[in-house]
Design brief:
The structure is a homodimer of 171-residue chains. Helices cover 34% and strands 19% of the residues of chain A. Chain A has 171 residues and is of the alpha+beta class. A four-stranded antiparallel β-sheet of chain A has the order 1-2-4-3, sandwiched between helices.
């Protein structure tokens, strides 16, 4: 897929078919994640690939907006690893860039995904920490539910001239 | 440019030629930014395009790692707008996704850029706030210096198998 087509047509996908996601596809998505820029090129990220149905069934009790994970072939929890930071405080930005790369790669593969929020909500952080046995330095940021799309969403431009300012804030 | 080529070959560019960046190119970059996902699709972002040489000369005193802005045709300060958030606390992630889209679009156009960090460093935030007249609800996140690359950087895979875990944290 062409880059600008990918940027313009990616949408959040929340309904998936039963078709599995292959190991090669997952590797492509995770490599895209790890090509993201990071402060000091620290790459302060860790990825938990979740495929166990028993665990996926419990996601909805951590975050109801991610309950569709129980009906998707695979999900990935993207985490910051505080022990890897060179410039403390940038892991959220670094990992968010990695997530955006993943969403684009997923779309480019013909798959679909939705980014569900974890950080900074304390209850969701604790829920994922308990479910997946995360130690203190591993900070869950975002939970991506991934699969083959079972919905077609049109894409419209979100470009807004009024969000652009020149050389100073213009209210 | 093909999506996966863009994901794999994007690098931070810090040296630029004198060639200007066109208004069409800037619009393409800003539209890519605004196509990013955001919590509740709130799109809580604002963009300050900086081209005034007098202001660009002052960037180095706010952040020495961004001093090359004085020798680049254009820079963009990406800000969160707290008044636009639907789910408070997600603007850093939303705006970081927008920045990553911008970096990919810039690369796809044959331009180059570097993401220099602002948030969460209080002094840099104050520096940009004072320089560009930002009101309280406008939170500067990242400052992108953009131009035509005057350096060639090879890209190597950053893929690391040891950052991938299955169904639980495995140390």
């Amino acid at each position: 897929m062409e880059l600008f087509e990918a940027l313009k047509t990616r949408r959040s996908i929340r309904k998936f078919t039963d078709e599995p996601v292959s190991d090669d596809e997952l590797k492509t998505v995770l490599e895209a994640a790890m090509m993201a820029p990071s402060a000091g090129n620290a790459q302060p990220w860790q990825f938990i690939v979740v495929t166990e149905q028993e665990k996926l069934e419990k996601i909805g009790s951590i975050n109801p907006y991610a309950a569709m994970a129980a009906r998707a072939p695979v999900s990935i929890l993207v985490c910051g690893d505080l022990s890897l930071e060179k410039f403390p405080g940038y892991w959220v930005q670094d990992c968010s860039a990695a997530v955006e790369n993943m969403l684009l790669a997923i779309h480019g593969l013909g798959l679909g995904a939705v980014w569900t929020g974890v950080h900074p909500l304390k209850e969701r952080i604790k829920g994922f920490r308990d479910l997946l046995g995360l130690p203190e330095q591993i900070q869950p940021l975002a939970f991506l539910v991934i699969g083959h799309p079972d919905q077609q969403l049109k894409s419209e431009s979100r470009y807004r001239e009024d969000r652009i300012h020149h050389n100073q804030w213009e209210g």
